[in-house]
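User: structure tokens for this one?
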Amino acid sequence: MTTAKRLLICLGCILAGSAIWAQPAEENPDATSTATTGTVAITLTVTVQTAGVKAVDCAGVVSILDTATRTVFSVSTTVAATGTGATRTCTISVPYSFVLASPSTDSLGIGYTISAPTGASPLGRNLEASPLKTIPLPKSGTTTPVVTAATI
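Assistant:
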């Protein structure tokens, strides 16, 4: 095949591809071009009953299922717990910002993971509670407080 034929084939593919991608999107009356934003503020009190725990880390997880597109969005934040001994506290701020097609019908899932390595095992002992709760998606710009406790 000559170079000219190859170039014509490539040009044809590029033009066909651009024509396909340029098709107008379906209209969704609930769709928004602005992001739905917010923050989930998780306060987690951890009671440590496991011997040898050196440190405690907590992760807050926020997930949203866009019901119109069946797309799951997820974001997390990890922090080191404060305190010593049997009581530790994790204050986790998880900001989110997603462009959603159906914010009025979407839900917000909130969960957490605790990691507490011990001297006996590099893997440590983990406790995961996810989702902690599922709520209707709050109004954009809202801070949603969640207070909970766990024992490891």
